[in-house]
Structure formats: C-alpha cells, structure tokens
C-alpha cells in the first residue's frame, strides 16, 4: 500500500470528549479524530466547529475493528469505559457500571491510512482494541514516526505481545507515561513538537507526545522490566484488585502501592525505511 506521509497530521483514535484533539490542534497539527460514540462526536464537532470548517479537524464516527462493517458498542454510563469488547464490558458491569448497546459502523487503521494518509503521531486509546489498531499498521510500508497506546496492566503476556508488535513494525524506543500524572506535565519552550502552547492537561487526557512526552527513551527490555511494578501495583490496588480488604488496600497505598495506568509511547527506529 503506497501512502502519503502527513508530517503535520495526527490521528486521535479514541477521541472521547476531544481533550487531546483540542491540544493537537493548538499545537498546529491537522487532526483526524475517531470515536464510536455518535453523541460525543456531535458534541466535539459543535465545540470545535471552526476547526472543522477550516479543514484542520476531521471527525470520523466509527469504531476501530479488525474488519470494516458493524460492531456492537457497549456505551457505558462512564463514557471513558465504552468498548466494543465483550470481556471489557462484562468487567465494567462487574464493577457496577451500566451500559446500553448500539450497533455502530466500524473501520480499520489501514482504511484510515488509505483515506487520510500517514500521521506523524497516532494516539490509540480505545478500551481493549489498542493492539488491533496498532496491528493495522502492518499493511503500510510507511508508518507514523510516533505511536502511543494504553498498555495492558492485567496480562503480562498481552504486554509482551504489544512490544513484539511494536518491534515487528520497526519501533525500538519507548517511554512509559503515567496517566495519573498527566495533569502535572509541563511543555518545553522552545517546543520539541509543533508550536509552543502554554497548556494545562486535564485529568484523563493523554498528555504530551513525541519528544515532548516525559521520561527517558528505553529499549523494549528496559520498558518491560519497568512494567513489572506497574502490574504488581494494579493487581494489589487496581479496579478489580486481588486483595479485597479495603483496610489492607489503604495500608498498601500508604506504602506506595498505588494503582496507575500507563501509555506506552513508541518511536520508529532511525534506521527504519518506514518513515518517509
């Protein structure tokens, strides 16, 4: 598949309420924002209408799937938990959340690349489908310089599969970005990505990207090793913890065992021919 690289283009896969999209626009990038929730797409389009009108923002009301067509969206009362994955929806119900089911149109990463070109950065945060979206880059000989996904925090086997997929695609440098700490991030001036903005990141936004993402670049082995503590903390004090006693979990949190979730940011190998 021959694709055109858009060095001023970002894909926001999992737009949600548009916090990341709005930030990318402020940085001077064009954005293709994808979300399965029609109501959220309408809300963001209304709020960012001037960017839609200018052509800087394209909103695609679709789920990401392995094949184009239709899928069931379990639209959660906590909108950030909405998912097309049965097992994730069941977990959310077990934690006390409720959902309504909607049949929605589905597209693929490959189809988005074919229609809009290859982005400089691709953010993926789509509740259980991040790896599917990442694998969609396999068909492309030209790939984004930077990609981020919300990494698995329950199955270490799934985590290793994420890094194996990154390696297959030519990504060899990684940053582990704490999502609980995103509101503390501050952007450098002069900027390392796009133009400088004095931006405060709201809670549940994804934060800075590319060279502005916090932390050192690691190789895959270093990154996986650092994830061991993340998994332990989540198993002890996360959404569905191994330890059920609230009193004991409180003690563990006091000792620093606080659950967190992380995005893995990946950078394409400099030697790779996949970045045009």
General description of the model:
With 276 residues, the protein is of the alpha/beta class. The chain has a domain at 5-65 and 106-227 and 259-268: 3-Layer(aba) Sandwich (Rossmann fold), CATH 3.40.50. It has 9 helices and 10 strands. It has helices at 19-26, 38-47, 49-54, 86-94, 109-116, 130-135, 156-169, 220-237, 246-254; strands at 5-13, 30-35, 57-61, 63-64, 69-76, 99-107, 118-124, 146-150, 171-178, 262-268. The strands form 2 sheets. The protein has a 7-stranded mixed β-sheet with strand order 3-2-1-7-8-10-9, sandwiched between helices. A 3-stranded mixed β-sheet has the order 4-6-5. α1 (19-26) links the parallel β1 (5-13) and β2. α7 (156-169) packs antiparallel against α8 (220-237). The protein is globular. It starts with a strand and ends in an 8-residue tail after the last strand.
Q: What are the salient characteristics of this protein?
A:
276 residues, alpha/beta, Rossmann fold, seven-stranded mixed β-sheet, 9 helices, 10 strands, 32% helix, 24% strand
State the gist of this model.
The chain is of the alpha/beta class. It contains 9 helices and 10 strands. Helix 7 runs antiparallel to helix 8.
The strand line-up of the biggest sheet is 3-2-1-7-8-10-9
Structural class: alpha/beta
How many strands appear in the DSSP assignment?
10
* Highest-level CATH class of the domain at 5-65 and 106-227 and 259-268: Alpha Beta
The CATH superfamily label of the domain at 5-65 and 106-227 and 259-268 reads: Vaccinia Virus protein VP39
Helix content: 25-40%
Overall geometry comes to globular
């Amino acid at each position: 598949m021959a694709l055109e690289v858009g060095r001023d283009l970002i894909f926001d896969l999992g737009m949600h309420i548009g916090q990341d999209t709005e930030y990318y626009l402020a940085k001077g990038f064009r954005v293709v924002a994808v979300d399965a929730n029609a109501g959220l797409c309408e809300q963001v389009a209304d709020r960012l209408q001037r960017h839609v009108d200018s052509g800087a923002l394209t909103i695609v009301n679709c789920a990401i799937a392995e094949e184009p067509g239709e899928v069931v969206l379990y639209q959660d009362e906590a909108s950030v938990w909405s998912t097309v994955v049965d097992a994730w929806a069941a977990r959310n119900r077990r934690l006390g959340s409720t959902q309504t089911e909607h049949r929605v149109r589905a597209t693929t990463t490959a189809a988005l690349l074919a229609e809009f070109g290859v982005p400089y950065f691709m953010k993926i945060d789509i509740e259980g489908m991040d790896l599917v979206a990442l694998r969609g880059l396999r068909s492309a000989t030209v790939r984004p310089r930077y990609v981020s996904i919300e990494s698995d925090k329950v199955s270490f086997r799934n985590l290793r599969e994420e890094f194996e997929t990154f390696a297959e695609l030519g990504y060899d440098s990684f940053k582990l970005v704490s999502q609980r700490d995103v509101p503390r991030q501050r952007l450098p001036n002069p900027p390392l990505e796009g133009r400088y903005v004095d931006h405060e990141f709201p809670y549940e936004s994804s934060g800075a990207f590319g060279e502005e993402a916090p932390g050192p670049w690691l190789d895959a082995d270093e990154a996986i090793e650092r994830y061991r503590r993340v998994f332990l903390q989540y198993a002890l004090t996360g959404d569905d913890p191994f330890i059920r006693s609230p009193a004991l979990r409180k003690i563990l949190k006091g000792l620093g065992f606080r659950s967190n979730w992380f995005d893995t940011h990946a950078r394409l190998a400099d030697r790779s021919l996949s970045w045009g």
